[in-house]
Design brief:
Elements lengths: L28 E2 L13 E5 L6 H7 L3 E3 L4 E2 L7 E8 L1 H15 L8 E9 L7 H11 L5 E4 L35 H24 L6
Parallel strand pairs: 1-4, 2-3, 2-5, 5-6, 6-7
Helix pairs in contact: 2-3
């Protein structure tokens, strides 16, 4: 899948491009700016690693997000901070690994930064051992991994009926109706992504050279 894992003192979320082999099939590229569906432009984009990855649902749940479909956001006019979405199953993990390898290898558009990987349950119940083992392998490619469980109500709920998460929202109760409140795991992941985003922006600002006096 890849060559050696980066050393423990690796300074950032991205590996050295020469240490990773890009997949043969690259993701498409979105040249147009991401849509603004709320009061403000999106803070991050959700990229679906494969069909049925749940990117549209996640982008609807997280008000600060935009759905970029299967494509890397290439426009610098809107955010290029990305979370990759995939189902927690072997095909989903393989697809997620390809997108992560593509980014690490430097094959994604300039400016793209992957904040993490979001894995959504492929079915209710326990995760098979073989899937858990491969998840651990793919997790080495992601700075952060966020997991969303199975929510039965999604089967009978339209996207525009879903409640939305906003960064200032209080934690969700354990049991919710998805039309009224986002599930607790969705709230938790959204909060963690926003925190990660803030850290990424702070680190970027600190790394910029100071203007001459």
């Amino acid at each position: 899948m890849t060559s050696d894992r980066p050393p423990r003192d690796h300074p950032g979320p991205r590996w050295e491009p020469h240490t990773v082999t890009a997949p043969e099939q690259l993701a498409p590229v979105r040249e147009a700016p991401l849509p603004t569906t709320g009061l403000y432009p999106p803070l991050f984009a959700v990229l679906g690693a494969h069909g049925g990855a749940g990117a549209s649902t996640l982008a609807r749940w997280w008000a600060p997000a935009a759905d970029t479909g299967p494509a890397w956001p290439a426009s610098s006019h809107t955010t290029q901070l990305v979370v990759i979405a995939a189902r927690l199953c072997l095909p989903g993990l393989v697809a997620a690994g390809e997108r992560l390898r593509e980014w690490h290898a430097g094959a994604a558009p300039d400016g793209v930064v992957v904040l993490g990987l979001v894995l959504t349950a492929a079915r209710p119940g326990t995760v098979p051992a073989v899937v858990r083992r491969y998840r651990a392998t793919i997790a080495t490619l992601a700075t952060e991994v966020y997991e969303i469980g199975w929510h039965d109500e999604l089967v009978v709920t339209e996207l525009d009926e879903l409640a939305e998460f906003h960064p200032a929202d209080p934690p969700s109760p354990r049991r919710v109706r998805v039309r009224e409140t986002v599930p607790a795991d969705v709230h938790r992941a959204g909060t963690q992504i926003i925190s990660r985003l803030a850290t990424t922006r702070r680190d970027a600002a600190e790394s910029e050279p100071e203007a001459p006096s």
